[in-house]
Amino acid sequence: MPVNKVLILGGGIAGIALAIALTKSNIPVEIFEIRDEPSNIGGAVNLTPNAMRYLEYLGVSSSLMDTCECPAIEIFSLRTGAKLAALSFDDVNAYKFRARRVIRSALIHALIQTLGDLNVSIQYNKRATSISETSDSVTLQFADGTSATGSLLVGADGVHSFVRSHIDPSRTVTYTGVASAYAFLPASSISARLPFVATALYSGRAGSVLLSYTDAARTQLYAGLVMEVPAPDSDLGREGWRAHNKDREAVRRDLTTRFASPAVPQVSELIEKVDEWWLRPVYKLPPSGVWWKGQSVLVGDAAHAMPPQGESIGLALEDVVLLTRVLEKHGGTQSAGEMFEAAWEEASWRWESVKDKGVVATWAREIMTPWVLWFMQGKKAKEMMYDVREIEI
Predict the structure, then answer these.
(1) Burial level of 119, CB count in 10 A (0-12/13-18/19+)?
(2) Could you give the CA distance from residue 202 to residue 267 in angstroms, rounded to a whole number?
(3) Is there a domain that residue 225 lies in?
(4) Are 154 and 9 in contact (CB under 8 A)?
(5) Does residue 308 form part of some domain?
(6) Start and end of every FAD-binding domain (predicted)?
(7) 121-143, pLDDT tens digit by residue?
(8) Measured between alpha carbons, how far is 126 from 141 in angstroms, rounded to an integer?
């Protein structure tokens, strides 16, 4: 069955990237976003070499050359300040690109620009209220009274996906117990020496601290602090977490208690100097589940929500490229959906929890980190060379 039009619900990274890929493949799309404008919320994302190759395929990578190129993530002890190891992205002969650290909103705007160059625009203020299907079509109803009909609906609407509630209503998100606090600040505001080239990960008992430049000139810093945070007493919704952000001084005190260390004065200093921290809860989905049913399919966090470990953008872009290839070859058939799900059943679950390991376990992890990363580097290299454009479909 040919795909006459694809409806995409979600104007984030996965949704816009899919709209670009399908349009380039001459598959008509309409893309809808619940917000009234592009999202400016979010930290700085890691674009792995895989992700950069997919963005090149989409025609977006050239717009990101003024961001921070990341030849390696350098890993330090939060307890002692010592450098433990590094995870390298520097083999451009094998990977074609090094990794990059990019502000999320800048990536979204680069995608929007590319989509606009293809004469496709995002329809904002579109809150979906219902989904109905026939044997060969799907219709979205919106709160404003309008509707849209296509031959396939793609849910790129994030971890709290409306489309997933239609495809697999029993598969609901739960809070992981982990949250990330993030902020941006000028690098010049930190008087302590920053002992890394591009990106540093400080590992400690209470969690981890990621520091990274976000621009090629290395003038702007991103800080992301990942830690265990108990669930609030009230409903575990996104609005409740936003309310937490109002108490900036309490957040600062909490971060100081968890992460301040005389061995890493730069971390203590940035916690003190940041004016506003954003707190983002990390949710997870049960493994497996249904990704494609009838005329509807899921991609990105709607299908496989991931913790902040630096690969979620790459996986979302893999979904985009693979789904585009499937639709080009198989159309919107159920067998195509089964093939798409099978290809990602295992690859989407690269989940690692962040826990308070205790003093002894923290010291042991510091000792083992160089050996573990040496062992993992070969595996990571294979992952970074992997490309869904090369697999048989």
Answers:
(1) exposed
(2) 9
(3) no
(4) yes
(5) yes
(6) 5-330
(7) 999 999 999 999 998 899 999 99
(8) 9
Range of the domain at 128: 6-67+99-173+285-359
Number of domains forming the structure of the chain = 1
Nearest 5 degrees, angle CA 173-CA 223-CA 72?
95
299-335: per-residue pLDDT in tens?
999 988 765 555 789 889 999 999 999 898 877 666 6
Q: What pTM was estimated for this model as a whole?
A: 0.89
Note whether residue 293 is domain-resident.
yes
Q: Which amino acid is at 158?
A: G
Q: In this structure, is residue 325 part of a structural domain?
A: yes
**How does 266-287 read in b/e, with b if 16+ C-beta sit within 10 Å?**
bbbbbbeebeebbbbbbbbbee
